[in-house]
Amino acid sequence: TLFSKIFSGNNNHPNTRIILSVNNSSLESSSGIDKFDTIELISPNKNEIELIIQNWLKLTNRTLPSRTSMLQQLTQQEAIITSFNSKPSILSLRMAFFSSISWKSFTPISEYSQLHSRDPCESLLIQLEKNHTEPLTRTMLSLIYCSNTGLTFNEIEDLLSTFDDVIKSVSNFENSLSSRIPSQNIIRLRNSLSDQIIESCFGGFIVLRFRYELFAETVRLRYGLKSQNKFVSLNSQQQQQQ
């Protein structure tokens, strides 16, 4: 397992420390974890959440109304906190916050009260499907999820070009259908996912992979993916052969 391999061998420096963040299910199913000191992370309380929100507001030069009208039952800040409480994770809080910075002072309560009625990750996927088409969003995120080590941009472009529904969804005119998906469509979707997808180096190649396990799990559930690690990046296969 991962835990049993981390400090395998006798060449480990005594001052070397590695910090891992895992969820409870991974913790319970992993052998060798008893060799490590574990600390359970406690969810922040309301005062700490408010402090986090205020710091983020300063960084983005934004403000949220602190008072409500008689017709409104909760403030925009309370909507963010309520959304966090429905699914307590820093990722959910962060996504709810960045949804809130698009609000105006005249934004109706019906809009920002939806934060706690729908999972923030799923809300993001729905918005991406509207902005970048459902076939492209579904297929690209599914490919990244099912890859073992992440995919390079060229691999994503090649694989997406094998799906006719993806190419048709991004074509402006029926007669302009091409055998390959325009790279700018992938770039736009990638930019919209700048906080959820990161670039990392594997085998000498820059690959794209998910930053958060919670977001990856939402992708799996929404698109009906059964298992991870279905295939390995072509570049990583070449690296292993060498």
Biggest sheet features: 2 strands, antiparallel
Backbone structural class: mainly alpha
The proportion of residues forming helix, as a percent range, comes to 40-55%
Oligomer: single chain
Beta fraction: under 5%
**Overall pLDDT metric:** 75
Please give the alpha-carbon distance between the first and last residues: 24 Å
Radius of gyration: 21 Å
Query: Number of helix segments?
Result: 13
What labels would you give this structure?
242 residues; mainly alpha; two-stranded antiparallel sheet; 13 helices; 50% helix; 5% strand; globular; disordered C terminus
Secondary-structure map with pairings?
Elements: H1 2-6, H2 24-29, H3 46-60, H4 76-86, H5 90-100, H6 109-112, H7 120-132, H8 134-146, H9 153-160, H10 164-170, H11 183-192, E1 197-202, E2 205-210, H12 213-222, H13 234-241
Antiparallel strand pairs: 1-2
Helix pairs in contact: 4-5, 7-8, 8-10
Task: Describe the fold and architecture.
- The chain is mainly alpha-helical and 242 residues long.
- Helix content is 50%, strand content 5%.
